[in-house]
Amino acid sequence: MRKITALSMSLLLIFALFGCQLSNIPKGAQLVSSYTIVVGADADIFERDTAELLQDYITSLTQIELEIREDSAAAAEYEIFVGDTSRSAEYDTQSLANDEYYIVSDGNKISLGGNKHMIAAAAGELAREYVEASKEQFILRASDIPVTVTPKKIEYKEARNIILMIGDGMGFEHINAAKFEGMEEFYAENLFCGESITTSLTGVTDSAAGATAIACGYKTTNKTLGLDGEDRPVKNIRELSQELGKKTGIVTTDTQIGATPSAFLVHLISRNSPDILSAQSDVKLDYFKHYVTDEGILNSVKEGLRTVNDSENGFFMMIEDDKMDSGGHGFYPPSVVIGINRFNENIAYNMCFAAMYPDTILIVTADHETGGVTFSEKEKKYVCTTSEHTGVNVPVFAMGFGTEYFSNATVDNTDIAKFMARSFGVEDFGQQG
Q: How far, in Å, CA of 69 to CA of 65, rounded?
């Protein structure tokens, strides 16, 4: 009789365990760990962002990190195609409406498609509806996925999360300047679009009063942080979020004591107060990155969202890019264009996040316009006409539950704060009457 060595016994146990696992997999399902996420070598920004967000989502659900590879790599047996690839079947995405997406299964291959950022809605549904725990393992119920393209409309849920993006100093003409210099598309223009009145109690606003209006829902005087017109402290949306048990985060390219982030953190008579740092030291945030480099802001945003997105109660995240403001103050339109392009990449990622998690509201706006950017017929290019702030209205772009409120509307900047509070179920936030 042949001796069973320790190695042989180990192998037998492994085979037995593996066979047991396979026998426990429901018919038509497959282990999540069997899948690879595939994007095309020429995938657009929404497809690449969606692939990364899907990887994160599945990891958060299962603790399994799926590989992402391009379609030029060797094929795997089980694959999830994000957008068009050289190996996926061709599906008609041109007929999809702006808010539509699809999920379709073809044997061992699953294809996700959608109009621009709506592809992330498909990925979100795949993770939420088809990935589940089964007898101490995670499976993907591929046989339950439609085998023909059936367009679905995204269904936004009442907000659990809010992402507020502030392009410091960004006006409509800043966006047009970037397009003139080669930016193909400003992604936020696919969302509901309105405009915001930015004046403060002083007149043309500065960043302190502008950010206070957006954060607190109160008009105030220039240089003031988190106080109303009578210099009384007023609650900001970050504080409200924490009262509601939500996680909070701030990412900014500005310094820690910059006026915009400080309006969400402190209550002081002056943005130049020597007490800003000590006042901030009493504030507890789940994530805070400041003075982020040009290359690092998107990575910080990704890290921040991973940090705050594990709360059952949701989160509030404020993201600021001040490149447009510094470019306007510096009378230097090329810096404005660089800032808009960088902000645009960040916007695309957050649009995908909000589509993947439909209980998220995304708002993209500005605290004011800087530089008086306009097109010069004489010079045939965009120029700055001042190094100061102007009083022109600024854009408001939004997606998520109830954000049609901003569509083709002119709102006061304080209305943004009040809308965010209402979205979290609080009606009496900000200045009333």
A: 13
Question: Which of these, 240, 238, 208, 239, lies nearest to 221 by C-alpha position?
Answer: 208
Can you spell out the DSSP letters for 201-264?
A: SSSS--HHHHHHHHHHS----TT-BSB-TTS-B---HHHHHHHTT-EEEEEESS-TT-HHHHHT
Q: CB atoms < 10 A from the CB of 17, how many?
A: 10
What is the distance between the alpha carbons of residues 374 and 378, in angstroms, rounded to a whole number? 12
Residues 353, 115: Cα–Cα separation, whole Å: 15
pLDDT score recorded for residue 14: 44
- Cβ atoms of 354 and 118 within 8 Å: the answer is no
161 contacts 315 by C-beta, under 8 angstroms: yes
**pTM to 2 decimals?**
0.94
Q: How far apart are CA 333 and CA 381, in angstroms?
A: 10
Q: In which band, very low, low, confident or very high, does the pLDDT at 91 lie, cut at 50, 70 and 90?
A: confident
Number of independent structural domains in the chain: 2
Q: Which domain holds residue 86?
A: 28-153
Is residue 317's pLDDT more than 80?
yes
> Within this chain, do residues 293 and 395 fall inside the same structural domain, yes or no?
yes
**What one-letter code names the amino acid at 63?**
Q
Say what the pLDDT of residue 134 is: 87
The Cα–Cα gap between 163 and 20 comes to: 44
Task: Tell me: do 171 and 133 sit in the same domain.
Answer: no
* Cα dihedral 269→270→273→275 (10° resolution): 40
What pLDDT band is residue 208 in, cutting at 50, 70 and 90? very high
195-211 as b/e, with b when 16 or more CB fall inside 10 Å? Answer: bbbbbbeeebbbbbbbb
| Residue 430: strand, helix, or coil | coil
- Residue-wise pLDDT tens digits, 61-71: 999 999 999 99
